[in-house]
C-alpha cells in the first residue's frame, strides 16, 4: 500500500535538503534524481529499515512524498518527514485509499499513527 505525507504549501521539501537529510539519518539509503522533467517525481529513494525497505519518491513541487513498506517503518518514516517541515506547516499522513489518515504535527507519535491506521503492533 502507498502512504503519503502531503503538505499544503509547495516547495516545503526541497530535493537537495531531502537528499542530504535522508542520507544523514539513514546512511544506507539510496537516492536517485528523476531526469525526465515531464515526470511528477524529482527523486526516488530506497531506505533499509527495521521491518522492511521503504521505497518512494518526492514530487517536483516539494509538497508530497509517497512511499511503500511495512506500516511500522512507514510510520517512523512519516514522523521523520515531519521533521523536515516548518513547525507550523500543515501536513497529512494518509494511505492511498484514505482508509487511514491523520494530521501530522510535531507532537504526533507512532501510537497516534497506529491508531489512525487501526494497527496493533505485536508485543515485544
What is Rg?
14 Å
Largest sheet: 7 strands, antiparallel
Strand content: 25-35%
Compute the number of strand runs.
7
**Helix and strand element order:** EHEEEEHEEH
Work out the helicity level: 25-40%
Q: Looking across the biggest beta sheet, what order are the strands in? A: 2-3-4-5-1-6-7
Name the overall outline. Answer: globular
Q: What is the compact description of this entry?
A:
The protein is an alpha+beta fold and 124 residues long. The protein has three helices and seven strands.
Write the layout of secondary structure elements.
Blueprint (H helix, E strand, L loop, with lengths): L1 E6 L7 H11 L4 E4 L7 E8 L4 E7 L4 E5 L2 H13 L7 E5 L5 E3 L6 H7 L8
Antiparallel strand pairs: 1-5, 1-6, 2-3, 3-4, 4-5, 6-7
Could you characterize what this model shows?
The protein has 124 residues and is of the alpha+beta class. It has helices at residues 15-25, 71-83, 110-116, and strands at 2-7, 30-33, 41-48, 53-59, 64-68, 91-95, 101-103. It is globular and about 45 Å long. It starts with a strand and ends in an 8-residue tail after the last helix. The relative contact order is 0.21.
